[in-house]
């Protein structure tokens, strides 16, 4: 009986911890690593991000209307554990691959987290031999606007585009 009580208590503690910290996905990765010694991180709210767009870029402005914020993590030293943790936080069942670009030793990947109604996160990862860059745009985007965004980013040698 004591064993059952201990197991039940441990289960309740675990579940209460999960309820207090429902954080998952990119947000979890960002919060774990934004103060990492080899990382540079920043987050820009949508209103401020619009200042960086030229007046002639109407598509980008429309996209920004649906955006909540954009955040970056830049690691100047690539460590295997970073990639393991990133892949754990961005599981393929939740984050669908939109586009992959390979150029020499670099690989750029765009992932989208779709909640069924709209895309709520677009994550771009850049993995190079020596560094890792992770960018996340959050908001409420249509699939069409997400495709326009990835196509508008001019990266040579696009190897595949997911429909």
Give the overall pLDDT as a whole number: 77
Shape: globular
Sheet with the most strands, sense and barrel status = 7 strands, antiparallel
- Beta fraction: 25-35%
How do the helices and strands follow one another from N- to C-terminus?
Answer: HHEHHEHEEEEHE
Q: Are there runs of 5+ residues with pLDDT below 50, and where? A: 1-21, 156-163
How many strand units? 7
Structural class: alpha+beta
Total number of distinct structural domains: 1
Cα-atom radius of gyration: 19 Å
Count of alpha/pi helices: 6
**Residue share in helices?**
25-40%
Distance between the first and last residues' Cα: 55 Å
Task: Describe this entry's structure for a reader.
This protein has 163 residues and is α+β, with helices and mostly antiparallel strands. The protein has one domain (23-161). 37% of the residues lie in helices and 35% in strands. The protein has helices at 2-20, 25-33, 46-49, 58-65, 80-89, 143-152, and strands spanning 39-45, 67-75, 95-103, 106-114, 119-127, 132-141, 158-161. A seven-stranded antiparallel beta sheet has the order 1-2-6-5-4-3-7, sandwiched between helices. Helix 2 packs antiparallel against helix 5. The longest helix has 19 residues, at 2-20. The radius of gyration is 19 Å and the shape is globular. The model is unreliable at 1-21 and 156-163 (pLDDT under 50).
Output the keywords.
single chain; 163 residues; alpha+beta; seven-stranded antiparallel β-sheet; 6 helices; 7 strands; 37% helix; globular; disordered N terminus; disordered C terminus
């Amino acid at each position: 009986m004591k064993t059952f009580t201990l197991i039940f208590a441990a289960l309740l503690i675990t579940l209460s911890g999960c309820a207090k910290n429902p954080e998952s996905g990119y947000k979890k990765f960002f919060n774990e690593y934004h103060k990492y010694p080899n990382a540079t991180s920043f987050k820009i709210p949508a209103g401020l991000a619009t200042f960086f767009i030229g007046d002639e870029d109407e598509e980008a402005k429309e996209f920004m209307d649906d955006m909540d914020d954009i955040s970056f993590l830049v690691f100047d030293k690539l460590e295997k554990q970073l990639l393991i943790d990133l892949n754990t936080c961005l599981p393929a069942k939740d984050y669908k691959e939109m586009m992959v670009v390979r150029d020499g030793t670099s690989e750029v990947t765009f992932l989208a987290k779709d909640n069924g109604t709209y895309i709520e996160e677009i994550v771009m990862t850049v993995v190079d031999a020596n560094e890792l860059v992770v960018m996340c745009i959050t908001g409420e985007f249509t699939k069409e606007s997400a495709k326009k965004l990835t196509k508008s980013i001019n990266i040579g040698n696009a190897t595949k585009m997911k429909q």
